[in-house]
Amino acid sequence: MSNTVIPLLLDSLASAALIFFAAVGLTLVFSVLRVLNVAHGSLYSIGAYVAASIGLFIASRQLSPYLSFAALLCSAVFVAALFGPLIERTLIRWTYGKSEAVQILITFGLFLILEDLQRMIFGVQSLYEDAPVRLLGTSQIGGVVYLNYQLLLIGLAVIVVIGLRMLVRHTRLGRLITAVVADREMAQSIGIDTNRIFILAFSLGVFLAALGGALAMPTSGVAPGLGADTMVLAFAVAAIGGLGQIEGAAVASLIVGLARVLAIYYVPSLDAVAPYAAMLIVLLIRPYGLFGSVSARKI
Amino acid sequence: MRAAYAIAAVLVIATLPRLAPWLQFVLTLAIAKGFAALGVAVLLRAGLISIGHAMFFAVSAYGVAFLARAGVGDLATLLVLSVLTAALTGAVVGAFLIRYRAIFFAMLNLAVSMVFYALFAKLYGVTGGSDGLVVPIPSVFGAALDEPAFMRILFYLSLTLMVLVGLAVHRYLDSPLGHALSAVHTNEIRLEYLGIPVWAVLLIAYTLSAALAGLGGAIAGFAIGRVVPEFAFWTASGHLVLIAVLGGIGGVPGAFIGALFLEMVHTAAVTVTDAWNLIVGAALIAVIMFMPKGLYGLVAREEGTKR
Fold first, then answer.
1. C-alpha angle with apex A23: A20 to A24, nearest 5 degrees?
2. What's the maximum distance between 2 C-alpha atoms anywhere in chain A?
3. CB atoms B288 and A105 under 8 Å
4. Residue B180 forms part of a structural domain
5. pLDDT band at residue B307, thresholds of 50, 70 and 90?
6. Taking the model in full, what pTM does it have?
7. Does A100 contact B at CB distance below 8 Å?
8. A105–B114: do the CB atoms touch at under 8 Å?
9. Does residue B296 belong to any structural domain of this protein?
């Protein structure tokens, strides 16, 4: 019994960690800006492309392979610094107060633009640089061999959940964000610079998206279409957890990860259906997600 | 005046393939997408944005392929049955989804359509997986045709249907049932107080929009000769919304203007550049920001000022 349960749980956790990184930025941005960013998946795949490019550069120059860990983080910071303020200031800001249809369409337009830009810059071949995975090696748990990198990702996901919680609850910036989420106008009227909060929150969302892409790259590589695939997965997770709920996204990632692994174990042909089926079931019962509510929106 | 424009436009479209034969396929596909975009536009009237309508497009196209494999070989029968399949699927899916509004409606449509996509792609034995299924050339009223003859018939049939179905949808949108859609958008509670059941208004609209998407899907399946899971992918649904908004959701012609415009620009653009999505994305953003009524809005606004 335990022979199957432990690997199953570990697989689910590893899968959930990757799924969480794909979704957390989307839900964070929605909670603060109240904009569903359809281009989120593209920022994820851009993060992966940049990480792969830097990683391949390091490998080609025979630099210390340990630099590739720094490369993963640097690429996420780079993508966030480049795209975060730019996109928020130009496109997203224009949609504040407009209908969801407009927000979805504007960001869908951005998605189309970013997908083509990636194709023009990085080409259509898939990129793959697994130095971080090779460096960390493997370990054996319960008779099954695991990549230490996967276990590291689980740890990182936990750190990000706790880190975001600390940020929101215990820092000045977090309190400002909470105030803006609770009541935008009131926050403005007591002197909070909401524009600054929006730029920061959106850039943080872009950072998390790009980091997710960068962290996933060493295990699965990056190819055209990754952005579109990630987008729907992130949607599903964010919706299951309740849009704008970070802890909700974490729990939803576990559910989707488990659903996917169970599908792979027992009905392999249905593994791609599992996340959406889970989303459907949850949303039909609780339209606002597991942790969402109609009126009060927290992060 | 507007009718004169419309007749002139239809006549131009009808003669174009005689002048440039390669345009026939492009125009057939544009009309097919126009039907689906019209379906999306009907729901947009009620303020409901569906990022999932490509599922009905795909369901109908797969329906044609399945029926053809089961031995149904007549064009008219295949069209009617596949559109009915899409409408029925729409009625079932709609019965669950019309309870939701705004982003939740959009996302649930997305989720259902991705379930369809994943099933089409994964049930290899039934759907042929990512290779898809072949849509054979059907007979027309018992006559077996070669490919060029059938494609010509398909084009003129699509064009005729565009006019007839377009008029019917126009009548529907102008009926109390159609006006109730915009009322749902403006004030749903007031509509309930007036004794109009919102769920019935929306379910009829949803079923109709699924049938329209299905009609488009069946035509596209015939024109392309193959149906693949990508028909149902969420970006395809996004493109349908894009066409509807680009053309303008103000009236029936908008969806077809948007589809024709997009396909023509596509055909022209691929000869110059492969950054097609970039152009479309930028155009979409520009249209939403600077001409919220879409391409059709340009014509419609002119009419408005003359009066």
1. 80
2. 60
3. yes
4. yes
5. very low
6. 0.85
7. yes
8. no
9. no
* Ranges of each domain in chain A: 24-224
Comparing alpha-carbon positions, the chain A residue that sits nearest to B245 is A105
Report the Cα–Cα distance between both ends of chain B, in Å, rounded: 11
Q: Could you tell me which of B141, B161, B137 has the C-alpha nearest to residue B151?
A: B137
**Residue of A165, A150, A146 whose CA lies nearest to A250:** A165
Helices B294-306 and B252-270 meet at what angle, rounded to 10?
A: 130
Per-residue pLDDT reduced to its tens digit, A63-120? 777 777 888 888 889 988 999 889 988 888 888 877 777 888 889 889 989 988 888 8
Is position B242 within any domain? no
Q: Are B281 and A112 inside 8 Å of each other by CB?
A: yes
This model of the complex carries an ipTM of 0.81
Does the beta carbon of B275 lie under 8 angstroms from any beta carbon of chain A? yes
Contact B243, B44 (CB under 8 A): no
Residues whose CB is less than 8 angstroms from the CB of residue B49 and which lie 6 or more positions away in sequence, other chains included = A100, A101, A104, A105, B43, B105, B106, B241
CA atoms within 13 A on the CB side of A2: 3
The reply to whether residue B285 touches residue A109, judged by beta carbons under 8 angstroms, is yes
Partner-chain contact B276 A100, CB within 8 Å? no
- Choose among A110, A270, A283: nearest Cβ to B111: A283
Task: Judge contact between B188 and B198, C-beta under 8 A.
Answer: yes
Phi, psi of A221 (to 5 degrees): 70, -175
Nearest CA in chain B to A92: B285
CB of A111 within 8 Å of a chain B CB? The answer is yes
Render pLDDT for B229-266 as a digit per residue (tens, 0 to 9): 888 888 888 888 888 888 776 678 888 888 888 888 88
The whole-angstrom distance between B277's CA and the closest CA on chain A is 5
The range of the structural domain enclosing residue B162 comes to 2-232
Within 8 A by CB and 6+ apart from A148, the residues are A136, A137, A138, A139
Q: Do B234 and A277 touch (CB under 8 A)?
A: no
**Does residue B288 lie in a domain region?**
no
Residue A150 CB-half CA count within 13 A: 18
